[in-house]
Every structure is written in C-alpha cells, then in structure tokens.
Amino acid sequence: MVYSSKHLIGLSEISREDILTVLDTAKSFREVLDRPIKRLPTLQGKTVVNLFYEPSTRTRISFELAEKRLSADIVNFSASTSSVKKGEILVDTVKNIAAMKIDMVVVRHSSPGTPHLLARVLDANIINAGDGGHEHPTQALLDMFTIREKLGKLEGITVALVGDISHSRVAMSNIYGLKKMGARVLVCGPSTLIPRYIERLGVEVYHNIDEVIPQADVLNILRLQLERQRKGLFPSLREYHNYFGITRERLEKATRRLLIMHPGPMNRGVEISSNVADSDHSVILEQVTNGVAVRMAVLYLLAGGRSEIN
C-alpha cells in the first residue's frame, strides 16, 4: 500500500485507506524501536525543517527523534530565536526556507490553516504538528494506533473524548479519524466547552461523565486549554474536577476494563487524578512511545516509502 497524499494536513482530508497505511506502517517501526540499534538509513539525504511557532515538548521531541531514527538531516526553527522577532512575516520566512532546498516541513502554528498555506507556496511535503484549534493529525494517529494495539481493532469500539472539546485540535483529529475507522465517538464536558452543532460530525454529546463511563471502552482525557479560553467558561478548576475529573471512584462505574489516554501535558488533580494517570488502566506513556513510531511512518510514507518495510 502507498500513502496517496503529498502532505499530512488533517485527518478530515485523507482517506480511511491512508489512515490504515500509516497505522500498518507504524507497527513495523514500533518493532524497530525495540531493537538495540534503532537507526535506519531510510531518509538519508533528506532535509526536514521543524517549524515551530508555538511551544512544544512532546510533539517536537517526538518528531526530532523520528527524523533522527530515519537518518534525516534536521533543521530546527524556533520563532523566539528567529527573524520573526524582527518583524519577518510567515510567508517570507517560508520562502527563505524554501530557497534552501528542503524536502519536508513539520509545522506548528497558532493560526488554523497555516499548513495549507505552506502546501500552496512550497514544493516540500508538509506535516501538520498542530494548527490553532483546527487539527493535530499525528496525535490522533498515535492515539488510534495505541487503541488498536491494545484492543485489536477500531471498528465498533466506543471512545469518549472528555474535557475541553471546543479548543482541542486533538479532539477534532480524533473525531475525524475514529469516525472514518468505524468507531463510536462520545464527547463529554461542560456545555461551554463543547462546540455547537458538533453532532453533525457524527458524535454523541454528553454533559455527565458518570453517564459516559459505563458505555466507553476508551477515555481520552483532554486538558483544559486555559491559554485559548475566554474567562467564565466554568466556575473554577475545583468545580471542574468535581464534575468532570477522572478519578478512581468514577472508574469503579465502568462495566468493562477501560483504557485511559491523555495527549499531554496533564493537569493532575484537574482533569485526571494521579492514581488514575499512574494506574494499570493508563496507556499514557505508551502513547508517547507509539508517537515516535507513527511519526516515523508518516515521514517514511511522505518520502515515497511503501507500507512494507524490510
């Protein structure tokens, strides 16, 4: 199987077959990560620019590791130490990068649509590492990879996305991807943190977490993105935790063994209790490991690789 698109901008834009290709390819790369020697010559001679206009720890390190594991040449860009501080606009930055004959760009930006802009003005492959509240496709792919590895399938399972749905690019990519793969998707949170008309995407909306837990196979818990919110969306962090926080006591209402997921960073004691985050229900650290494999798969496939890896 071959990935059919030149870019990975969002899961709303790619096919079910392309998602499967990434997940199947990532499985091979996940095995590579367990080898004593984890480096492959796959992207030797390719130059990847990590163009990050927003702070990032997990996503940036994960992409850098994936690129190094595949032997790519890496250029790291940080807006805080670049000509952006001198007033240079995005288009001029991008044109200068293009003049350096790069092959791929991994971009994170606060403005939705930035990866689309880059895809129009660059010949390079573009990978969206998060654009505003729009999408974060590689996070959703690694979430789906983790679920499939643990439960053996995606079709027919029930995944609940809990928390700040309105401001979460992770939630949007998960909804698009999981629905294409045949999963049932629930969203749960305060009415002020759930977009109007989200049911049109084929999800079910709840405002009571205790109604959701007995139905779910997976809880994917999202942090409150306070930096993107206006004030007054909920009374206090303590009240949010009382009504929507995932605690040991709440998990006792589950009718089956639940997978607990979180894209990070976690606000312990707010959206999730420490005794849940560190429990045997949690696959949060496995998500981090799987993220490297999924990003290796995306880089490899965009460079023209096939899903079969020797």
Please, could you describe this protein's structure?
It is a single chain. With 310 residues, the chain is α/β, with parallel strands linked by helices. It is 36% helix and 15% strand. The protein is built from eleven helices and nine strands. The strands form two sheets. The protein has a five-stranded parallel beta sheet with strand order 7-6-5-8-9. A four-stranded parallel beta sheet has the order 2-1-3-4, with helices on both faces. Helix 1 packs across helix 5. It is globular. The protein starts with 15 loop residues before the first helix and ends in an 8-residue tail after the last helix. The relative contact order is 0.17.
Largest beta sheet: strand ordering: 7-6-5-8-9
- The structural class is alpha/beta
Give the helix tally: 11
Mean pLDDT: 91
Q: Roughly how much helix do the residues carry, as a percent range?
A: 25-40%
Give the end-to-end Cα distance, rounded to a whole number of Å. 14 Å
Topology:
Layout: H1 16-32, E1 47-52, H2 58-69, E2 73-78, H3 90-98, E3 104-109, H4 114-121, E4 125-131, H5 137-151, E5 158-162, H6 169-180, E6 184-188, E7 204-206, H7 209-212, E8 218-221, H8 237-244, H9 248-251, E9 259-261, H10 274-277, H11 284-302
Parallel strand pairs: 1-2, 1-3, 3-4, 5-6, 5-8, 6-7, 8-9
Helix pairs in contact: 1-5, 1-11, 2-11, 5-6, 5-11
